[in-house]
Amino acid sequence: MEHTEFNKDLIGFLNASPTPWHAVSTMKERLVKAGFECLDERDQWALQPGRGYFVVRNGSSIVAFRTGKRDLAGSGIRMVGAHTDSPCLKVKPNPELRRKGYFQLGVEVYGGVLLNPWFDRDLSLAGRVTVLDDQGQVQDVLVDFRKPLAVIPSLAIHLDREANNSRSVNAQTDLPPLLMQAPENDTTSFADVLKQQVARETGVNASKVLGYELSFYDAQGASLVGLKDEFLSSARLDNLLSCFIGLQALIETSGNEAALLVCNDHEEVGSMSAEGAQGPFLGAVLDRWCGSEKARIIARSMMISADNAHGVHPNFADRHDENHGPLLNRGPVIKVNHNQRYATNSRSAALYRHISDELGLPHQTFVVRSDMACGSTIGPLTAAVLGVTTLDIGVPQFAMHSIRETIGTRDGYTLFRVLREFMQRAEVF
């Protein structure tokens, strides 16, 4: 697989995954096709050597693993972690707004959203809906309207002369998307809209909508950009790109060594949930897999936390440390922060550099400016929960947390090649 084929497949994955639930559903399909077996946390497990398995929690987080063919206590597990969620606008429980003959929906900001790019975009809506069907059964269904059905219009500059100088966004009053015009006697409810969509998309006749978790998203699909197609632009590159890379690496690895991929939900809001990186999900899976030897196995294991990095923006190069400014298409970025916002240490970084050098592939290093605050990832959280040696790494990108982000077309494939080699390497520590 060359990087052009890799990116074509990546675009399909991104377009099929507008929410964490859709991303996990897409990953499940790919894993089943590759011969992995689905496990249920409510059942007893009988894991076999040399097999592939996966388990899902809440429909939005997934752990997939190969058991390998060697004794775990002597070989350890090669782990890769990412997250399925991205900053977005989520629909409130009682969202209907009728003003001046327009029908709008109230939204809540999820995560650290860069808000201004959400204006004047073609927006669609997707997520999970819990319904009572016509047989009296409660069930979860996924919906994706796919078409542009909403917009958040900007206020004209004639009515806001300082818009280009000092514009700020009020999340309560400025962001409700516009869905349609509605006369004064219109009684349309959002629940009615959802029941119709559920019936169209799934064939389920819902007598009642009991709940939902729905997100607006950019209806424009992922695409190659640039005179020479050097860039790929899409929504949710942070961090579906890493989910895709880790998934492909796990599927294509030899299977001789024990390897694992975890993709957690709720990273963008702190990871403190039943399925987040600060929660018990990964640890519970490892307990059932490793048993009483878990401590010995973890001591021989390593986690690579894959989450995108800040590439140097050519218009704002001064926002980076002058010796640690990653460039797009120059390789994945080892992320270092001695205050433990990233979990990288010299040992974990050395292993990545060694594998990358053996493959003849480029790599870079990022350290935030000393006068700026540093972001974080699931890396330190997972390292603290498990006690596993961890590396933080990511593909450099522009416009992190915008409705549309940009990466180089070569870096994702480079990281995939290193992670695939890592997952099938005989010795880690």
Q: How many strands appear in the DSSP assignment?
A: 20
| Shape category | globular
| CATH class label of the largest domain | Alpha Beta
Tally of individual domains: 2
Instruction: Kindly report the CATH topology of the largest domain.
Output: Aminopeptidase
Instruction: Work out the oligomeric state of the chains in this entry.
Output: single chain
Please name the fourth-level CATH homologous superfamily of the largest domain: Zn peptidases
CATH architecture verdict of the largest domain: 3-Layer(aba) Sandwich
Q: What's the average pLDDT?
A: 95
Q: Which class of secondary structure composition applies to the elements?
A: alpha/beta
Gyration radius, in Å? 22 Å
Sequence of strands across the biggest β-sheet: 1-2-3-13-4-14-18-16-17
What are the segments in which pLDDT stays under 50 over at least 5 consecutive residues?
Answer: none
Number of helical segments?
A: 11
Strand content: 25-35%
| First-to-last CA distance | 29 Å
Tell me roughly what share of residues is in helical segments.
25-40%
Give a quick account of the main beta sheet: strands, pairing sense, barrel closure. 9 strands, mixed
Organism: Marinobacter fuscus
Protein name: M18 family aminopeptidase
Family: Belongs to the peptidase M18 family.
EC number: 3.4.11.-
